[in-house]
Amino acid sequence: MTKRRRLIWQLYPSYLLITLLAIMASAWFATHLLTGFIFDQALQDLGIRAGMVSPQILQHLDPLNEAAVDQFCKATGRMSTTRLTVLLADGRVIGDSREDPGKMDNHLDRPEIKQAAVTGFGHIQRFSRTTDYHFLYAALPLFKEGRMMGFVRAATPIDHIKETVRKAKVRMVEGGVLTAVLAALLAFLVSRRIVRPVNILREWAEGLSAGDAPSRPPVEKGGTEIASLAEAIYGMAVELRGQILAATQQRNEMEAILASMADGVIALDMDERILTLNAAAGVMLGWTPQDARGRSLQEVARYPGLQRFARDTIDHREPIEQELVLAGNTQRFLKAGSSILRDGEGLQIGVLIVLNDVTRLRQLENVRRDFVANVSHELRTPLTAIKGFVETLKEGALTEPENAQRFLGIIEKHVARLEAIIKDLLSLSRIEKETENGEIRLTRERLLDVIQTAVQVCAEPARLKEIRLSIRCPADLEVGMDPLRLEQAIVNLLDNAIKYSDPGKEVRIDARTTPEGVELRISDQGYGIPKEHLSRIFERFYRVDKARSRQEGGTGLGLAIVKHIVQAHGGRLEVESTPGKGSTFNIVLKEPPLAARTG
């Protein structure tokens, strides 16, 4: 911000500038007159000198004695700085105080000679080709008994005249500088006298603006304009102080309310420029309230839906409610409501938009809808099969022992599937509940013990498929865990690895410490998972190959349970897979959260 100049430095330079301009104009005018005067005096002096020598020269022109003329010119020239030249009427030079006349050109064409022949007196400033100097020339015609005998010309170097002018100018400049200094001092004193009461009033007003209680201005009372202004400011300050206090309190209350609101609030003028927005709206739009203020809505919120919503409110001049979808890196659902902003006279000055972020609610609704649909589908399939075989048995298959046994075996298989689904759903529900309520207690246990227990559980399915289970884990490696839950996660991963691997393959369980904590990797040489499925395999009931999964007896909840168990431990679950080569599930259990989880 540019620093404002004091009043004295606004008045004083103006006074000083006017004074200096006046002095400079006077000096220029005087110098111009002086230069003209000096040149006129020099010209007049040359004319007098030429006139004074004319009688002596005429004596040698009739009869003509050129040598005597030239000798006279040189003798006269030695006694002064004036150059003297004598010409005959035909322009031939017969005498010169500095040069040999015989070597000089005919001068009849010289401007001063032409003018003298016509007017009786010729003068000019010009360069002399004979002497290579600038001269001031004055010429007079020489008459004897009415007959022109020739011309006499007097000249003086311009440099001599200029030196005289320069000295005169120096004296004038010195006088002008002295006058300017005196004028500057006088202007400063006058400006200071004018500004002093204004400065007193300014300091008093600055105290008021800083929050000081209004007091009488410290200026002399009377009928001066400054005193009247001070009294007016004092009255205004008293009135404004009360209004400012009330407005400040109201503003602070409003800002506190807006800042504490979870809903986003945006106030726009009629040109769709942002008057204000709260922190919640700033988070939704990716702007800070300070940076967004004064900008257009199109610049701050590059969402066509929100822009149309604001424009419709302004155009229709009535409140509107609508659900908006803001597309970006993540999709955001907003429930928007608007109302009209009016001034004290009831005129519309803008719109107020309130944005309620219902993204989480929509996501939960989608999750609930998908979950219900998936559960219904997963339960309906075995129930439909059970119902069909029961009806078949009722219709007479009971009398056929061989078919009855086969049908009962199928019914038993589907019942077992229903039981597994319900068991996994209950297990998943318990894990989520324990995590939310903080009921999971982590204790430091040997990781190798948990891995070996999980391997024993999966040993029989692995033996039937001739799959080798290999363990590489330091015997002394300990980590904060819930042993039963972590064992369940490892069992689910091993079970999947065995199910989706061909006979004779190997499943490896590797554990080690890393800078992040403890890393547990379960790798198989199975069918692998295509890349497009990797981001969704931890969703409930999601299957990469639905037919194979049901054939192997999977419920579609195993990996979802693993994910929630790892999250309950404050860890991270990652997967890498290449179709046809196998998959690797990586559990990272972070150590730092342990202190916060154990008590």
From TrEMBL:
<dbReference type="InterPro" id="IPR000014">
    <property type="entry name" value="PAS"/>
</dbReference>
<keyword id="KW-0902">Two-component regulatory system</keyword>
<dbReference type="InterPro" id="IPR036890">
    <property type="entry name" value="HATPase_C_sf"/>
</dbReference>
<keyword id="KW-0418">Kinase</keyword>
<dbReference type="Pfam" id="PF02518">
    <property type="entry name" value="HATPase_c"/>
</dbReference>
<dbReference type="InterPro" id="IPR003594">
    <property type="entry name" value="HATPase_dom"/>
</dbReference>
<dbReference type="Pfam" id="PF00512">
    <property type="entry name" value="HisKA"/>
</dbReference>
<dbReference type="InterPro" id="IPR035965">
    <property type="entry name" value="PAS-like_dom_sf"/>
</dbReference>
<keyword id="KW-0472">Membrane</keyword>
<keyword id="KW-0812">Transmembrane</keyword>
<keyword id="KW-0547">Nucleotide-binding</keyword>
<dbReference type="Pfam" id="PF00672">
    <property type="entry name" value="HAMP"/>
</dbReference>
<dbReference type="InterPro" id="IPR013767">
    <property type="entry name" value="PAS_fold"/>
</dbReference>
<feature type="transmembrane region" description="Helical">
    <location>
        <begin position="12"/>
        <end position="39"/>
    </location>
</feature>
<dbReference type="GO" id="GO:0005886">
    <property type="term" value="C:plasma membrane"/>
</dbReference>
<feature type="domain" description="Histidine kinase">
    <location>
        <begin position="374"/>
        <end position="593"/>
    </location>
</feature>
<dbReference type="InterPro" id="IPR036097">
    <property type="entry name" value="HisK_dim/P_sf"/>
</dbReference>
<dbReference type="GO" id="GO:0005524">
    <property type="term" value="F:ATP binding"/>
</dbReference>
<dbReference type="GO" id="GO:0006355">
    <property type="term" value="P:regulation of DNA-templated transcription"/>
</dbReference>
<dbReference type="Pfam" id="PF00989">
    <property type="entry name" value="PAS"/>
</dbReference>
<keyword id="KW-0808">Transferase</keyword>
<dbReference type="InterPro" id="IPR003660">
    <property type="entry name" value="HAMP_dom"/>
</dbReference>
<dbReference type="InterPro" id="IPR004358">
    <property type="entry name" value="Sig_transdc_His_kin-like_C"/>
</dbReference>
<keyword id="KW-0067">ATP-binding</keyword>
<dbReference type="InterPro" id="IPR003661">
    <property type="entry name" value="HisK_dim/P_dom"/>
</dbReference>
<keyword id="KW-0597">Phosphoprotein</keyword>
<dbReference type="GO" id="GO:0000155">
    <property type="term" value="F:phosphorelay sensor kinase activity"/>
</dbReference>
<keyword id="KW-1003">Cell membrane</keyword>
<feature type="domain" description="HAMP">
    <location>
        <begin position="192"/>
        <end position="245"/>
    </location>
</feature>
<dbReference type="GO" id="GO:0004721">
    <property type="term" value="F:phosphoprotein phosphatase activity"/>
</dbReference>
<protein>
    <recommendedName>
        <fullName>histidine kinase</fullName>
        <ecNumber>2.7.13.3</ecNumber>
    </recommendedName>
</protein>
<keyword id="KW-1133">Transmembrane helix</keyword>
<dbReference type="GO" id="GO:0016036">
    <property type="term" value="P:cellular response to phosphate starvation"/>
</dbReference>
<dbReference type="InterPro" id="IPR005467">
    <property type="entry name" value="His_kinase_dom"/>
</dbReference>
<feature type="domain" description="PAS">
    <location>
        <begin position="250"/>
        <end position="297"/>
    </location>
</feature>
<dbReference type="InterPro" id="IPR050351">
    <property type="entry name" value="BphY/WalK/GraS-like"/>
</dbReference>
